[in-house]
């Protein structure tokens, strides 16, 4: 089992920045991919960014490419997955979720991620 806890959401004006953090504990060594998804009101949850277990590979949704950066770090028994969000737009407003997949493939598919955090709200005002 893996437990994920997100933090860092909030309210920001368009053009501003936020940094989200996800603290993962438990059997983190069994996870192959870490990712961020988001869900806006009335919309389906969508992929934002992913990073491989060793940090060597990253991939972004076209809508955030060049503005968001995903990274990961280890500290003792905890894996930290961060999402630096710059040049934020009102369209980025959503609840952001950290997720982990044990499947040994690079994936953006929601169903491939078995572990999820509780989500953190990001609101971008115009």
Overall helicity: under 10%
Poorly predicted ranges (pLDDT <50, ≥5 residues)?
Answer: none
Helix segment tally = 0
Global mean pLDDT: 96
Assembly state of the chains shown: single chain
In brief, what are we looking at here?
With 126 residues, this protein is an all-beta fold. It has strands at 2-7, 10-13, 18-26, 33-39, 46-52, 58-60, 68-75, 78-85, 94-101, 115-116, 120-125. Strands 2, 4, 5, 6, 9, 10 and 11 form a seven-stranded mixed sheet that branches.
Describe this structure in words.
A hairpin with a 6-residue loop joins strand 4 and strand 5. This protein has 126 residues and is mainly β. It contains no helices and 11 strands. The model has no long low-confidence stretch (mean pLDDT 96). The termini are far apart. Strands 2, 4, 5, 6, 9, 10 and 11 form a 7-stranded mixed sheet that branches. The chain has a 4-stranded antiparallel sheet with strand order 1-3-8-7, with no helix packed on it.
């Amino acid at each position: 089992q893996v437990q994920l806890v997100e933090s860092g959401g909030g309210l920001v004006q368009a053009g501003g920045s936020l940094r989200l953090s996800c603290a993962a504990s438990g059997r983190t060594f069994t996870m192959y991919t870490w990712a961020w998804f988001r869900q806006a009101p009335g919309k389906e949850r969508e992929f934002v960014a992913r990073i491989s277990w060793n940090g060597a590979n990253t991939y972004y949704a076209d809508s955030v490419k060049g503005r968001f950066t995903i990274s990961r770090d280890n500290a003792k028994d905890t894996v930290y997955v961060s999402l630096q969000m710059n040049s934020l737009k009102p369209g980025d407003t959503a609840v952001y979720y950290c997720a982990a997949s044990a499947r040994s493939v690079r994936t953006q598919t929601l169903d491939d991620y078995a572990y999820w955090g509780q989500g953190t709200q990001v609101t971008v005002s115009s």
